[in-house]
Design a protein that fits this description.
alpha+beta, about 325 residues, Phosphoribosyl-aminoimidazole Synthetase, Chain A, domain 2, homodimer, 2 domains, about 35% helix, about 25% strand, 60s Ribosomal Protein L30, Chain: A, 10 helices
Chain lengths: ~325, ~325
């Protein structure tokens, strides 16, 4: 039930390796994390593209929200306090039934609401025009302040893996939208309007060995954390925190749990914690947070999976890397 | 010969106004500048798109160089020392005769050379895939350090406008490429590989009232500086610093000077300086820098143009805003 850590050498992977060679400054920390460190600041940049990270039919307000939220989720994983953001807005063709600029106005309204919600000052950025027919590409650089950010590679042997948030909701929502583009409800909202767990991240940061946000699927992201920490990881499907909406839509069998563990777009937090600290740490988290110990770090390499006591074969794909649809 | 300051309400302008309303934190400084300020740091983000800011046929290495250089030019205008950058790389289809990923590898090589040249550590960023057929969109956030950055809106009545660098080279190079895509030489290089004037910027920053880089054409950018400073501006075409290569290619008549004053992509520095400080400031600049007093700030609004002693009617377009070609 053990497989090597992911090493799919896609073009993206090859380019990331090239980038790692280039990013040799200490502040880049080998690009192991999603953030760079500069003075007491952490910086992250996420770009989303139409037809890749969101559906062209998604409400523009929700795309604006999502761009802010996915960037803030990277800051949450460092326990950082948001201090500012730069926006890159590439203007595209007006969709059917919209005036020129209307999509962008509505997108900016979504950005504004998210910035307001999380007290993120918009500091600047760039606005460019795109050639006709080009999919929109939207980027944000978010900057946060933190004293001593946990890294992704600090996991220690014997650490338990605490997951804060829920898994699978966003991908279940995307599946609903694929069936019916007018679908709505909790799961669709989870896909369109993820919530960055900033408060939980700030609390966790003080007590954990390693932390990251789960954006590409729990199995893939946990395997990454284990790999850079020089360890193996065991994940228990039976322990996944699943929302009521998820259970109602997808059921509670192994297939549903595998879907939740590999879906991506969760923006949950995954933290490696000394087992003796677990009780204290969970008591400090907001009481309404969904949270669960989903596995642990052990000696060795790779990832293994079980469902309660039963070993489970690893799925072919450990997670969801965003690709054009 | 006086016209109101530019107020072409394109979609981009309208969206910029919306962004200004949103960016109400002091650190954003009303988006008057191309940079944001955050505790001793300045941050800038520039995005370039295939078919808008560069030609699809341009060597990928030169596109990588250009992305770094245009961002560093914003830092130069603040007299800032580059301290790091985040890269946003959207992977596109392989052009004819290239393998998948080859364009990006070569682009990254250009980024690496520029980072090396200007001592800019690459700290992180994001790599995404684009849908088939989508033009590439490439972004960079550059971060610099500076004590007391000159703003764009600090110009004072009576200030002389010193331009450091040359004008028109890049647009003359682009015109050569439009005639013959195999064109080469100084002007083509100026278009493909602009040089950020970091050393000159650091020197000027200590002595000027206002500074900006000229990226959209001298007339348009000078009018912007005057407008935000609450003043009018006079520009003298006879005074423009033009390179030997430019003069050889375009001649030295009024048409050539108007082309140079409105072309864009110059990445020269434009500084508003007290006239009594001019001699001292120019003596401090690197002796090989091309430089000239191209005009001055006066009371009033708008921009006026002359050629030596002769008043000149303003051209229909004051500058070049990058648009899909």
């Amino acid at each position: 039930m053990t497989a090597p850590a992911p090493s799919d050498k896609s073009i993206e992977q090859q380019l990331l390796e090239r980038l790692r060679e280039m990013a040799d400054a200490p502040a880049a920390a080998g690009l192991v994390d999603d953030v760079a460190h500069l003075g007491g600041l952490v910086l992250t940049h996420d770009t989303i593209a139409e037809g890749v990270h969101y559906r062209p039919e998604d409400p523009p307000e929700s795309v604006g929200w999502k761009l802010v939220a996915v960037n803030l989720s990277d800051l949450a994983a460092k326990g950082a306090e948001p201090t500012g953001a730069l926006l890159s807005l590439a203007i595209g063709d007006a969709p059917d039934k919209m005036l020129p600029g209307e999509w962008e106005e509505r997108f900016l309204a979504g950005v504004a609401v998210a910035c307001e919600s999380y007290d993120l000052p918009l500091l600047g950025g760039d606005t460019i025009a795109l050639p006709e027919g080009a999919p929109r590409v939207l980027g944000m650089t978010a900057i946060g302040k933190c004293a001593d950010a946990p890294k992704r590679d600090g996991g220690q042997e014997g650490d338990v893996l605490l997951l804060v948030g829920t898994l699978g909701d966003a991908m279940a929502g995307l599946a609903l939208l694929a069936e019916d583009e007018k679908a709505s409800g909790t799961l669709v909202e989870a896909y369109r309007r993820p919530v960055p767990l900033l408060a939980a991240g700030r609390t966790l940061a003080l007590h954990v060995h390693a932390m990251m946000d789960v954006s590409d699927g729990l199995l893939l992201d946990a395997a990454r954390m284990a790999q850079v920490s020089g360890l193996a990881v065991e994940i228990d499907l039976a322990a996944l925190p699943l929302s009521d909406a998820y259970l109602a839509a997808r059921g509670d069998n192994r297939e549903a749990r595998l879907f939740a563990a590999t879906g991506g777009d969760d923006y949950a937090l995954l933290a490696a914690i000394h087992p003796e600290k677990l009780t204290k740490v969970t008591s400090l988290l907001p009481s309404k947070s969904m949270k669960a110990v989903v596995g642990r770090l052990v000696s060795g390499t790779g990832i293994s999976l079980r469902d309660g006591d039963a070993p489970v074969e690893l799925p072919e794909r450990l997670g969801h890397e965003h690709r054009p649809q």
